[in-house]
Automatic annotation (TrEMBL):
Residues 1-25 form the signal peptide. Belongs to the TonB-dependent receptor family. Residues 187-612 form the TonB-dependent receptor-like beta-barrel domain. It is a multi-pass membrane protein. GO terms for molecular function: siderophore uptake transmembrane transporter activity. InterPro entries: Beta-barrel_TonB, Beta-barrel_TonB_sf, Plug_dom, Plug_dom_sf, TonB-dep_rcpt-like. It is found in: Cell outer membrane. PROSITE patterns: TONB_DEPENDENT_REC_3 (PS52016). The lineage of its organism: Bacteria, Pseudomonadati, Bacteroidota, Cytophagia, Cytophagales. This is Uncharacterized protein. It holds the Pfam family TonB_dep_Rec_b-barrel. It comes from the Bacteria.
Length: 642
């Protein structure tokens, strides 16, 4: 009843605010306020005080078909736990588990409702994708699962007249090969974008089997994979104030499941098919911008080995309706509703399962002063069989000082999040627990951002400190009722840490330029567990490194470039008791390339070295990773001048 009254009050306040536009017109000639800029991407207008990191899309453009796990591993402080090259890759965002990161594709959450997580090795974004990271809880913006952070995949619309076709072929060590083709066309009213990639690898590399006596060198078996991705976009201007967009993204992946060291080869393999379709209409209605979206996802995951066959199909239907209106030059409001329907046919459930979800939300951006931006966001969700909490977010940015090309901004944010138990958590047999409670968390962060612009030198740096706590954290553990695992609600998981990010660009002249950046994360994520004397002690969650560093550098001279990236990953515990761990490791990659141009044609030749120092490492215990390897690619682009 309290929440209903709150939502009624919220709606009443929104209507009251809408009426302010009339009264404001009477004083417009005496009060001058700074207009709110609404040209930024959809979410960034309402994330004051939070850390949002835009990932350089150069890797996607140079290496079409590269997966999101590879991109974020090289360009962010996120840690990815991989079961092998091309195998399942899951993320630990601010010390949370893989199901605590929301992944959104043009506004829709694409995490599997069965697992509640995304396999980043199954996500090869099209080259025109803008990838952003929103650090910290963001339940008000993104709904269930955005506890540690969110990964945002956006495909922007451009009607600027253009036409372009690009094809690329890449070959490499251990049977690696990749083919790609992309094309774009726009005439000012109709815009088309198509992309196709096909990647495959035998993964027959040599490795040291540390689980066998004497650590003999062996050839990796049953680790081949192939992946095909096809993306299509169609955008059409219905008028000056209306646009219709249709997007499709299909990914088909076949993987042999790489066995762990010391385990028998059961010839396990997995087939994944992910079809994502969405339509979007956007137009000017009632003095603002209205957007209506609808989406259909079909996710198939089939696993088999010598003794097990598991089949899973999930159909997801989603809809969104949003209205954004600038009430005053410094006040922006967006109201929206979202609905989801899951239809799962999973062998492990013993039957078909349906689930419905619905949420309403309100996002507010207010700039009372030119140097101050405030955002206040609210979301209330209703889930079949559950009662998620109301999730507010309050954040602010304040420009402290500006001088000699320097801008210093203080930031602060507090946000609530939640996560509804997945379908597997509740319905898997044996072990599923329909009585699980939704997770509920709070996040707090503050930081200092620096922007420098002076002549040919530009740079951005940001320092962020945060704290995170989650109640009723869901974790699978051995059951006392039999030889199987079951999910349980832990009492509390707490975490805190520091993040540092700095990126710089030096353009000496038309021929010479340098680019570089570094991202660092110090992460403490703990739960209380009993020691041998039954005394509760803080233990770091397993597979959460305290230290992760990613750095990259590129030098360009005329049509040549030389780039390198390096990542350092600290020690990770492999059990809850913190008695066993994987050692720290450093990976270095390097590439060199040259671009040749002739009229409307452009050819790019690139050579890469992966794992330059031939480091022996593991991201998942007893899962071998490739040694030093090489790749060579050739691309041809045709782009006539309009």
């Amino acid at each position: 009843m309290v929440r209903r009254l709150f939502l009624f009050a919220l709606a009443s306040v929104a209507l009251e605010i809408l009426s302010l536009q009339v009264s404001y017109a009477q004083v417009q000639d005496t009060v001058q306020l700074t207009p709110v800029t609404i040209s930024a991407p959809r979410y960034t207008r309402y994330v004051s005080g939070a850390r949002v990191q835009r990932i350089d899309t150069l890797l996607l453009q140079r290496q079409p078909g590269i997966t999101l796990s590879e991109v974020l591993q090289q360009r962010s402080p996120l840690y990815f736990k991989s079961y092998g090259n091309g195998m399942t890759a899951t993320v630990a965002f601010r010390g949370t588990s893989s199901s605590h990161t929301a992944v959104l594709w043009n506004g829709f959450n694409i995490a599997l409702p069965t697992l509640g997580m995304s396999d980043f090795a199954l996500l090869p974004p099209p080259p025109n994708t803008q990838v952003s990271l929103q650090h910290g809880p963001s339940g008000a913006l993104h709904g269930s699962g955005a506890v540690g952070g969110a990964v945002l995949l956006e495909n922007p619309v451009s009607f600027a007249p253009q036409q372009q076709i690009q094809v690329q072929q890449e070959i490499g060590s251990f049977g690696h090969r990749r083919s790609a083709a992309t094309g774009t066309f726009s005439n000012g009213r109709l815009a088309l974008t198509s992309s196709f990639t096909r990647s495959a690898s035998q993964n027959d590399f040599k490795f040291e089997n540390i689980a066998a006596f004497g650590a003999p060198r062996e050839t990796q078996q049953n680790a081949a994979f192939s992946q095909t991705s096809l993306a299509q976009e169609v955008h059409y201007k219905l008028g000056q104030a209306q646009r219709l967009s249709v997007r499709g993204w299909y990914v088909k992946t076949h993987r042999q499941i790489q066995p762990s060291m010391g385990s028998a080869n059961t010839h396990a393999q997995q087939n994944d098919e992910n079809l994502r379709l969405m339509a979007e209409w956007q137009g000017q209605v009632a003095g603002g911008s209205t957007t209506v979206r609808g989406a259909y996802f079909n996710d198939v995951l089939n696993y088999r080995d010598d003794g097990v066959l598991s089949l899973s199909t999930v159909n997801t239907y989603q809809s969104q309706v949003e209205h954004e209106r600038q009430l005053l030059p410094n006040l922006l409001l967006q109201l929206g509703e979202e609905g989801q329907l899951f239809k799962a046919n999973v062998g492990g459930y013993g039957g078909k399962v349906d689930e419905t979800r619905f949420s309403t939300y309100s996002w507010l951006r207010y700039d009372p002063l030119p140097e101050l931006q405030i955002s206040l966001n609210l979301r209330q969700a209703w889930v079949q069989g559950f009662n998620p909490p109301l999730t507010p977010t309050l954040g602010a940015n304040y420009i402290i000082t500006e001088f000699a090309g320097n801008t210093f901004t203080a930031k602060a944010n507090v946000s609530r999040s939640y996560r509804v138990p997945t379908l597997n958590d509740r319905f898997w047999r044996p072990g599923g627990n329909p009585g699980l409670q939704p997770e509920s968390g709070w996040g707090y962060e503050s930081g200092l951002a620096h922007v420098y612009k002076n002549g040919n030198v530009t740079g951005t740096s940001e320092l962020t400190a945060y704290a995170l706590q989650v109640k009723d954290w869901i974790q699978w553990q051995p059951s006392q009722a039999g030889p199987f695992s079951e999910p349980v609600n832990l009492q509390h998981v707490r975490g805190h840490g520091v993040e540092v990010d700095s990126r710089w660009q030096f353009a000496f002249d038309a021929n010479w330029s340098l680019f570089g950046g570094v991202a660092y994360a110090y992460t403490i994520s703990q739960q209380k567990l009993p020691n041998t004397q039954a005394i509760l002690q803080e233990r770091q969650l397993f597979y959460v490194p305290k230290h992760k560093v990613a750095g990259w550098f590129e030098a360009r001279f005329k049509n040549w470039w030389l780039s390198t990236d390096a990542t350092f990953t600290g020690r990770r515990f492999t059990d809850n008791d913190n008695n066993n761990w994987l050692p720290a490791y450093t990976l270095i990659n390097a590439s060199v390339g040259k671009t040749f141009t002739w009229h409307s044609f452009e050819t790019q030749l690139m050579a890469q070295v992966q794992n330059l120092t031939n480091t022996v490492y593991q991201t998942m215990a007893y899962r071998a990773m490739p040694p030093r390897n090489f790749r060579l690619s050739l691309s041809l682009k045709w782009a006539p001048q309009p």
